Amino acid sequence: MNTGFGPVSAGSGRGGATGDLATQLSELARDLRRQPDVDSTLTGIVHAALSLIPAATAASVSLVRARRRVESRAASGELPRIIDALQTETGQGPCLDAVFKQRIVRVPNVRDDPRWPDLAQRAWDAGARSMLSFQLSVDRDNLGALNLYGSEVGEFGEECEQVGLLVAAHAAIALADAQEISNLTAALVNRDVIGQAKGILMERHKLTAHEAFLVLSSASTTTNTRLIEVAEQLAARGDLAVRHRQGRQPPPAHP
Question: Superfamily assignment of 16-178 in CATH?
Fold first, then answer.
């Protein structure tokens, strides 16, 4: 996705750089809200960060999963993927600290930073020189982190932090909205599929709606498979070989 943004300065004063930044941040907000799904939103965030934040040459987003696990997404190149993998392996690093501990984590020199002894040298050897990570949060809901990489030591200063905070704020709102829409869409789809599967069982085996749901739940438990996957199998293939634990056993799905 081409954001159409160019590097700007966060300097003060009327018009000029500040006006340009405000305009481009407004464009960023509108552009992110137009994205059709979470993946497109993440890609837009990374592209905008690289365009708007001075000295950033690579970027990625770390997403929080199940409130503890972190997943690397939308990496702009190989370096962010490698560093994200190293942080997952070692359980330490600026991205993880930004996700769970601090609003901003600046790393002027990756190799000499004592905060992550198991990571520093390996990240340096992989090509990381300086880093800057921003927490992505909305209403105390911690979504993840925006991670930036510089090509040289000491690339990120106060200006980068100022612009980065603004980009991160817009990114967090857009990401929260995209995730909410995705969850609602998935819930509607799941409800439709489960309803379809219940209907098949009700018609084919003369079950009540409650009995049909118990059959699906029993199949889910017996096979250690998510309920939606059981429903999808039944809707697609028309078979469900599982005993109804709370009532009569349905006859075979196929005559």
Answer: GAF domain (3.30.450.40)
